[in-house]
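Revision sheet: structure tokens.
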Amino acid sequence: MDTATILTQATNQINQMIGHRFDVLDISKPISTAAALNLLKIISKLSPLIGNLIEFNIVEMLNKHNQFSNLGSWIRQDPGFPDAIFQSGITPSPGFEIKAWFPLSTEITARFKDSATHFQAQNIYMILIAWVPEYLVYGKPKILDIAIIEGGSIARSRDLHYHNPPDYLLLEPNDTTHRSRNLQQTTVNGYKWQGTSEEFQAAAEIVETWGQEGLEYNSSPIIQQQYRQLINRYPYRLDTNFAKIDRIRHPEIETFKRQIYQTQLHGLTIQAWSRLFTTNMADQIRTVFQQQLNLKEDAATSVLE
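Predicted:
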């Protein structure tokens, strides 16, 4: 028995969750289109909660259908990386990093910041789960579709996309393996240039002395020290939007996004619903809610104007 076999079995089980509804949470049907519009403004904030529910459900489901229970079991790591791991004597340990995506928001806001050094054995995959309430703004959370992608390929795409010294630098985490699990660091951070044009020219001349190594991202301690010296010498800011999954430009993620946006739900595609919701055209949204979701109009509508 090996890591790849366990990951394949687990992947097949996880894909069977497509269409699954979470009975533990049910958003009540709004009493009017006005109430639905107000609910729409905050529904995406459920994603962290849904993400936790998904993690619990995946681990529970994998253990329920575990063909290798004589070898070990799946556990949820909180805190810890990855989110779910097969605890056994098998090395490297199979694992999944789990991300929830509410596709009616403006973008995939979940981040993938884990260092590529943690994926060298190809034993950790990212699970990207698109979910919506059954009726867009109410009902039980429902899994629309699932993408399971090898984590190292995502980390490499991210590093290739962002690395651009001296304009943009990536810093690997320090070695924190001696710390307790909740204090260990596994994530990369991005830093954006904030200096003057004269300072930029001087920094660019330093980068030129690095040769080809300065053009290709490198996580080795020696090269990382060069990046740190640049940050210590010139002004940079920590990029709080760094590594948003929507911005990594990974081909499998992009394909999954297109599939989700083309998915039909209650008479419109997800993309059409998303565009409608971002127009802020209350009258048009209310009309569609009435036609497609059978929501009622009432006097409370005036508070939206």
